[in-house]
Each structure stands twice: as structure tokens, then as C-alpha cells.
Amino acid sequence: MSTGSRDHRTGLAIAITLVLWASAFAGIKEGLTGYGPGELALLRFGVASIVLAAYALAVRMRLPRWEDVPRIVLAGILGISIYHVALNFGEQSVSAGAASLIIAAGPVFTALLAAAFLGERLTVWGWAGIAVSFSGVALITLGEGGGLHFEPGALLILVSAVSTAAYFVVSKPLLGRYRPLEFTSYAIWAGVVPMLVWLPSLIETVPTAPVAATAAVVYLGVFPGAIAYLAWSFALARMPASVLSVSLYLSPVLAIAIAFLWIGEVPRLLVVAGGAVAIAGVMIVHRWGRPPAR
Length: 294
Hints:
This protein has helices spanning about 5-30, 35-60, 70-90, 95-105, 105-115, 125-145, 155-175, 180-195, 200-205, 210-235, 240-245, 250-265, 270-290. It is globular. It has 13 helices and no strands. It has one domain. The chain is mainly α.
């Protein structure tokens, strides 16, 4: 396969991931009208697990090597269990603006961890691009109004940002040995296990939950869950974690575009400016962020 073809497929995988993850915020808000934070996380990734298990049986997916199981379990706990449970609980008390700013620190943590554990390096331009993109997210947050209220739950959002950064770094070496579909399935299955503590309450809640809330969580499981994580693993197998994670700064920009096209919500000028700044920062990192290959 040519380099150009690989680049196009990687770009498509990133685009799919970002669009689906950008749509997840509305789904989480709808899901929380009928389910508690833990129940929502379990139902979401329970659905994702069933979808991936059905496909795994159909294609007779190979089992992981025993020596890789601890790392796979760690990845699942970090990227699925801790990230989503902490985020769901944190968003109950933290304003959307404050949450988005804290989550925006994720690529910074990813770059630091990738440098420490994977030997990845960013140039000065790379760090400058991260700073530019973070500033763009800050402008979007200020432009959307609502204020920044850092309640105690903000610590849970920070835990989410660090855990997802660690997930990217832990996952990277495994994606050199497993196909994206295999690794994504293993990680999600491992991440669901700790969530089973909410199974009794979930069983009681499902029959009485609003249909719209249940439908939203099923959507979260199939699309921002199974499909988006699969697409992200595909891209992560082909790019440095520190560079790829900066693409997440495009997520709020996509959320603004989706709101404009879907419900006609016109963004404020400061929000548009913030989006342009965030895009510029991502372009800087992807163009000049990596040292030249030796």
C-alpha cells in the first residue's frame, strides 16, 4: 500500500473518531436524564462489548498472548473504566466550560508521558502548537459563556484527562503486535469488568428509564464507543501518540460545526475565533511538531 493511501486512511480514521467523540457530549447529557453516571458507563460499554464480541466470534479473533494481558488490562482500566466513570461523575457538578478546559490538558499530559515512556519528542514548534490550540479551546469556552465554575468534581475531570493520556501511551506498543480491532476489543472488555459493580442498579433502572435516554446510551456504545475507539486505535498504530492526541483539540470545533448544521445554533464571534486558533495549533503540530527523521 502506498504512503499516500496510508495517510488518507489515517486521516479518515482521525476524522471519524473526532466527529463521533464530539457527538458524545450530547449523548451523555441525554443519557444522564435516565441513568446514573456509573450505570451509563456500564450500559454504554456493555453495548460496545456485545457489538465487538459478535464480530470477534464471526471472524474467530485470536486471543491475546498471556504476557500482554496485564498491559491490555491496564489500558482498559485507564482508558475505559477510570476515564469514563470519572468524567460522568465529574460533569454532574462541573460546568461544561470548566470541564472542556481541563480535558484540553490531555494532549499536554500525553506528550509528557510519551516523552518519558515511549521516547517520543516534540520540537519547540510542537509545544508551541499545543499552547496555541489550548488557547483556542480557552477562547471557545469564554465565547460560549456560562462562566467557569471549578467545583470539587473538577478533580475527577483532571483524573479523566490524565487517565486517557496514560491510555494512549500504554496502548501504543500493543498496537504494534495486535490489529486495531483486536486491541480495541480486548481493552473495552477489560474496561467493562470493574464497571460491573453497577450491574444490580442498572438492571433495576433499565425498565423505567426514558426511551430517549436508553437510545442515547446505545448510540454512545455503538458509535462513540466501539467504532470511534476502533478508528482511534487504527490511527494510533500509525502515528506518534504525542502528535495524534493534539488532534483532539479539533473536537470542540467539530461540536460547534455540528450544532450549527444540525440545529442552526450560530456561534459567537469569539467562539469562531477560538476555533480558528485551535485549528492553527493542530496544523502547527502536525506540520512542524516532530523532529526530522534521522
